[in-house]
Amino acid sequence: MCFMEADKGVVRHTFENLSRISGLVHGVFTRHGGVSAPPFASLNAAWNIGDSQDAVRENLLRIKTELGLKELVAGPQVHGDTIHVIDEDALSSAEERPPVRVTPPGDALMTQLRGVGLMIKVADCQAIFLVDPVRRVIANIHSGWRGSVCNLAAKTVRCMHDHYGCRPEDMLATIGPSLGPCCAEFKNYRKELPTAFWRYQVKADYFDFWAISRDQLIQAGLRDENIEAAGRCTVCETNHFFSYRGERTTGRLAAVVGWKS
């Protein structure tokens, strides 16, 4: 995983396994290079958290421009397991809120369309990219601890198979900067987390959700060597990332994957 910086100071993380795929653009954007004022400074990608609408619009335009995308698609995230397939009909029916098109609520997006970027917004939750370079299909998953509990990653893999004929063994996956095992404290884990997760406890009340996601993807049929994790904790690195646990009132990072036109 490496940093890439654009002319206006927009900085995004890219993944080695995805950077080798022709025609694919991607990145988990840091908090740098935007126009939002504190506590949302500065590249906040979320509309509905108290930031200036004009600032968010400019931030999203910078993200879209940096990746060279014709369309940027996102939607309200609800910590559920709804998956939206973005085909031509879904794209045309999405609400236009320039510079993005807004889908109904959901926590995973997938598409085969060229020129379309799928955006997830995070501040400690994981953004998981799935890419099938054979069928040329991509997905973007918003997975907090509730997403892990409902195994949204595996459900998205199955949806890619059912809708597009993707084979899990062909897929590449990434796990973005997010809540690390160093900071993932769950004092009420006996009520919140299934017993199958308890073995991922690294010390009393702390859990490794990066390992949980990797194992869920492997159990869904992906090869371990095709999964790349950033290994960056958003709580520990609030100089680069937004963190709800670390800051409470803060912005949201944009995680985008898309096909060039």
Automatic annotation (TrEMBL):
MF annotations from Gene Ontology: copper ion binding; hydrolase activity; S-methyl-5-thioadenosine phosphorylase activity
Is-annotated flag, keyword Metal-binding? yes
Which reactions fall under this protein's catalytic activity? S-methyl-5'-thioadenosine + phosphate = 5-(methylsulfanyl)-alpha-D-ribose 1-phosphate + adenine; adenosine + phosphate = alpha-D-ribose 1-phosphate + adenine; adenosine + H2O + H(+) = inosine + NH4(+); inosine + phosphate = alpha-D-ribose 1-phosphate + hypoxanthine
- Which InterPro entries is this protein grouped with? Cu_polyphenol_OxRdtase, Cu_polyphenol_OxRdtase_sf, Cytotoxic_necrot_fac-like_cat
Keywords from the UniProt entry: Hydrolase, Metal-binding, Transferase, Zinc
Similarity remark: Belongs to the purine nucleoside phosphorylase YfiH/LACC1 family.
Q: Which NCBIfam families match?
A: peptidoglycan editing factor PgeF
Q: What is this protein called?
A: Purine nucleoside phosphorylase
- Organism encoding this protein: Desulforhabdus amnigena
